[in-house]
Design a protein that fits this description.
The protein is an alpha/beta fold. Helix content is 33%, strand content 22%. The strands form three sheets. Strands 1, 2, 3, 4, 5, 6, 7, 15, 16 and 17 form a ten-stranded mixed beta sheet that branches. Strands 8, 10, 11, 13 and 14 form a five-stranded antiparallel beta sheet that branches. Strands 9-12 form a two-stranded antiparallel ribbon.
Length: 416
């Protein structure tokens, strides 16, 4: 079938509708400072999912969900049994996080599918927008559990038995999702995919600093993440001499400072994002300090060496305390498919949008598809590079640009 608009299916992308829906979705889990607190499979995230289902049905899309809690919105193709082109993101957030991370990619995918449908043309392949379960990895660890189960990176049984801090399993939380959506189709876990592309805010300052409108992601840094627990001995803050203390917090501070020095190279990203102290009382020497370590690098071999060094640093700086380490997550660096990158670059040029090749500093569901099908990521600018915060901001023009490029590339991939 011929396109109503022969030059570009992106003409039918409705920027006003996309921007309005971003605001509407942000009401689910809204915080007083303008962010969102919407953890995976919580009441607010399930409400956001139900809103997405309603919008998908209004657009004429077929809605389904799988045993891992992934939600799919499907635009039929003329060869409906052909392997579909897949796009999408997630709807959960960081604690007191931003309203765009994850959500923008999902709503841009919905808008791209609606725009393609509005052309009056039918793609050869189906196009599916997926809302992946537990993208942020806050309530359940690690992140990207839904896409990992879908692609076979993790067995479904392991995903379902994953527990949050309160002991609730993913399997338990999914009961609330199923109860809230009794009428949608339930499908089996996993299906063959022709290609995968997602769009996301950059979560960094490069596009804004360089005044570019679209980021074409060539690769993604690898990540190693740990939880370090330092054990000492509680004592009276006034009565115990400093030289005789087994102060767990002091040991943790020494370890963290040594890691800061070890990871000082500009191509290494190092973060301690969590720190807890017990008994957390002002007049008691801490007996336990627990902190997270997140280290990232573009070379998997280097990343392995950096991660392995943590134990040596802990051993050398623990003093009279003891320590234990939990390996929380290990994600290798990945390179995205050159054909997907070229398609994104060409689509942006057709739309007269400036581009910049980038390496993603953060993780995304797309990493789980690299070994499965040609995959890629598009970025849009993020104000001051701030993300995972209520201060996270994008503008309406950037949101529109990303959705337009996404629609162009999805159409191109679905007609092959």
């Amino acid at each position: 079938m011929r396109l109503k608009h022969p030059l570009s299916p992106s003409i039918d992308v409705n920027g006003a509708r996309l921007w309005r829906r971003l605001g509407d979705l942000a009401r689910h889990g809204a915080t007083p400072d303008g962010g969102v607190h919407r953890l995976a499979l919580s009441r607010s995230e399930i409400a956001a999912r139900r809103q997405l289902v309603a919008w998908g049905l209004d657009a004429g899309l077929t809605v389904s969900s799988d045993p891992a809690g992934n939600l799919f919105l499907r635009l039929a193709g003329s060869q409906n049994d052909a392997e579909p082109v897949l796009t999408g993101s997630y709807l959960d957030s960081q604690p007191d996080g931003g309203r765009y991370s994850g959500s923008y990619g999902m709503l841009a995918a919905l808008e791209a599918l609606a725009a393609i449908a509005a052309t009056g043309a039918t793609p050869r392949r189906p196009i599916v927008a997926a809302a992946w379960m537990n993208g942020e990895g806050v309530r359940f660890r690690p992140g990207y559990l839904g896409s990992a189960a879908f692609t076979g990176q993790l067995p479904l049984s392991q995903v379902l038995e994953t527990r949050d801090r309160n002991g609730a399993r993913v399997a338990d939380a999914l009961e609330g999702w199923r109860a809230a959506t009794p009428d949608i189709q339930r499908i089996a876990l996993g299906f063959a995919v022709a290609a995968y592309l997602e769009v996301h805010l950059e979560q960094g300052p490069e596009l804004e600093d360089r005044q570019r409108q679209i980021g074409v992601v060539s690769a993604m840094q690898g990540v190693r993440r740990y939880l370090v627990r330092v054990e000492g001995e509680a004592a009276h803050a006034g009565g115990m001499p400093r030289g005789r203390r087994r102060d767990a917090l002091s040991a943790a501070v020494r370890i963290i400072a040594a890691l800061e020095t070890l990871y000082a190279a500009p191509d290494v990203t190092f973060t301690v994002g969590q720190l807890s102290v017990e008994p957390n009382a002002p007049s008691v020497v801490p007996h336990t300090a627990t902190f997270s370590v997140d280290v990232r690098h573009g070379d998997t071999t280097v990343l392995a060496r950096l991660g392995d060094a943590i134990r040596l640093v802990c051993e050398s700086k623990k003093g009279p305390c003891s320590f234990s380490m939990l390996d929380v997550a290990a994600t290798p660096s990945v390179a995205f498919h050159p054909h997907i990158q070229a398609a994104c670059q060409n689509a942006a040029q057709r739309l007269n949008l400036s581009t910049l090749a980038l390496v993603s500093q953060g993780g995304h569901d797309a990493q789980n598809f690299v070994g499965v099908c040609p995959s890629g990521i598009l970025f849009i600018p993020c104000h001051r590079g701030i993300s995972h915060s209520a201060a996270e901001r994008i503008d309406a023009d950037s949101a529109l640009n990303g959705a337009r490029v996404l629609a162009e590339v999805l159409w191109e991939l679905s007609t092959k």
